[in-house]
Structures are given as C-alpha cells and as structure tokens.
Amino acid sequence: MITFKGLVAGYGRAGDILRGVDFAVAEGSITCIVGPNGAGKSTVLKTCSGLLRPRKGQILLGSQDIGGLTPAAILRLGVVQVPQHHGLFPTLTVRENVQLGAYVNRRQRERNRARYEEIAQIFPLIAERANDRAASLSGGQRRTVEFARALMLNPGVVLLDEPSLGLDPKACRQLASSVKALNQQGVTVLIVEQNVRFGLSMADNGVVLEGGRVLHTSGAAELLADPDMGALFFGGTTRETQP
Ligand SMILES: Nc1ncnc2c1ncn2[C@@H]1O[C@H](COP(=O)(O)OP(=O)(O)OP(=O)(O)O)[C@@H](O)[C@H]1O
C-alpha cells in the first residue's frame, strides 16, 4: 500500500505544483491517475520514485515514509519507475536489455539468471525475441521489454508514466495485457495516462487530479461510466479515444 498524505511539491523557485495530494494505492491493485494537462500527474510519480523531493507531506510505503529518499534508496525498497520513452538500448538484444534491469545487483549472477528465466515465462515475447536487437521491435513490444526489465529487481510497486504514448491501438492492446501480466505477479501498479479511457479500462481504481489536488477517487469502472466526469474533465475523451 502506498499512501500520499498532504503531498506538496514543485520545481525550483516556482510555486507548488502539487498542493496537498491525498490518496491511497491499494496493495496489488492497478491505480490510474487521470486529469487535464499540467494537473501534476507526472509530478506525483516523480516524487514517488525520488526524482523530486516533496516540500511537505508524506509518501508512505507501508508504514515507511519514502518521501525525499534518493532514487537508489527507493529502488532498493522495491519501487521501480518505467521511463516514459526511449527506455531501451536499440543495439543491445532483448535479453541484454532485460538483464540490465538488475544492473545494481549485477554480482548476484545466479539469482539474476534465474529471475530472467522466470520473466521469460511471464512474457513469451522475451523468450521468442531474446536474441533480436531492441531496434527491431515494434512500439508495443518495446514497452513489454521495458516492463520485463522493471521486473528483474522483483519490485513490489511499478510506476508507469504515460505508457500508451505514441502507440497504435494494436500496440495498446498488447500493452494492456503486459500491464495485467505485471499485476498478476503481485506487483502494485500506479499509472499516469493521457488516454483516459484506455488507462481506466486497465485499472481497478481511478484518481482524478486537477490543479495539483485530488478531485475525486473511485473504482475505475465507475469513473469511466460517469458521464459528468467524461464531459467535465476529459472533454468527452472517456468515450472517444478507445484504442
Ligand atoms: N522539470 C520541470 N521544471 C519546471 N516545471 C516543470 C517541470 N516538470 C513539470 N513542470 C511543470 O509542472 C506542471 C505539472 O507538470 P506534470 O508533468 O506533472 O503535469 P501532468 O499532469 O503530468 O500533465 P502532462 O500530461 O501535460 O505532462 C506543469 O505546469 C509543468 O510545466
């Protein structure tokens, strides 16, 4: 369980972007943050992975406050952020890219080998394309390799920032099944998505962020079905951007 309590954060000397964010991510769930451009969605993820230090408030992982810890310390506690794009080394093979996920533990060779084999079982693509260069993969396949790499450290929580960015509908379907596969491994997933309908359709719970505050939280299906939400916050996109 991750709990954001009164989280305030921003950049440099500019004012606060997050202005007291409160919500909880249930253990083992997929939770999707949606909201207009500039609402602060990505900023929530950056504070959670340690890229940005909170100015006030707490980010509780279980009972431990991880707000303000270094990215390396947060990674060691099992919270992994998948970068928005350009996450793979195109000239390395799929296997090499996945194995790089355990770089911080590179001396534990046996454990890493065993973990890689487990991951190749979870994502058939990894086994099928192990020796192909990442450059030869489609956009959706690359996203799968990025998720597989995130799993190398056996994380409890994976943070995904706009995973559908630049993907066509077929790749989005592949992405959704990879997110489910991650989650079925017991991983708690926190997603930020511009594509509201797509994001909520993968999720158990939805969080609406606007102007650096949480406006609404509910079950994702409930949020998707709420006509007021679609019209008011997403310009009707809950209906129009189905992949
Ligand atoms: N590194 C940064 N330095 C200064 N301001 C930033 C930085 N990153 C983001 N911001 C500003 O913080 C605000 C919130 O950005 P954030 O990326 O969290 O929004 P978002 O809800 O994810 O929206 P979007 O989908 O447009 O990225 C924006 O006004 C943005 O310009």
Can you put this structure into words, describing what you see?
It is a single chain. This protein has 243 residues and is of the alpha/beta class. It has one domain: Rossmann fold, CATH 3.40.50.300. It is built from eleven helices and ten strands. The strands form two sheets. The protein has a six-stranded mixed beta sheet with strand order 6-7-8-3-9-10, with helices on both faces. The protein has a four-stranded antiparallel beta sheet with strand order 2-1-4-5, covered by helices on one side. Helix 6 packs parallel to helix 7. The radius of gyration is 18 Å and the shape is globular. The two termini are 30 Å apart. The C terminus is likely disordered. Adenosine-5'-triphosphate binds next to helix 1.
SSE blueprint and pairings:
Elements: E1 2-10, E2 16-25, E3 30-34, H1 41-49, E4 56-61, E5 64-65, H2 71-76, E6 79-82, H3 94-99, H4 109-122, H5 124-128, H6 139-151, E7 157-161, H7 169-184, E8 188-192, H8 196-202, E9 205-210, E10 213-219, H9 220-225, H10 227-234, H11 237-240
Parallel strand pairs: 3-8, 3-9, 6-7, 7-8
Antiparallel strand pairs: 1-2, 1-4, 4-5, 9-10
Helix pairs in contact: 6-7
Distance between the termini: 30 Å
**Main beta-sheet annotation:** 6 strands, mixed
Using only C-alpha atoms, the radius of gyration works out to: 18 Å
Mean pLDDT: 89
Class by SSE composition? alpha/beta
Question: Helical content, roughly?
Answer: 25-40%
Poorly predicted runs are 236-243
Give the name of the CATH superfamily: P-loop containing nucleotide triphosphate hydrolases
Can you tell me the CATH topology? Answer: Rossmann fold
Gross morphology:
globular
Report the order of strands and helices: EEEHEEHEHHHHEHEHEEHHH
Distinct ligands:
adenosine-5'-triphosphate
Annotation, overall tally of beta strands: 10
Q: What's the level 1 CATH class? A: Alpha Beta
Strand order of the largest sheet: 6-7-8-3-9-10
CATH architectural group: 3-Layer(aba) Sandwich
Helical element count? 11
What percentage of the residues does DSSP assign to strands (E)?
15-25%
Please indicate the count of domains: 1
Keywords: Amino-acid transport, ATP-binding, Nucleotide-binding, Transport
InterPro entries: AAA+_ATPase (IPR003593), ABC_transporter-like_ATP-bd (IPR003439), BCAA_Transport_ATP-bd_LivF (IPR052156), P-loop_NTPase (IPR027417)
GO biological process, one term: L-amino acid transport
Family: Belongs to the ABC transporter superfamily.
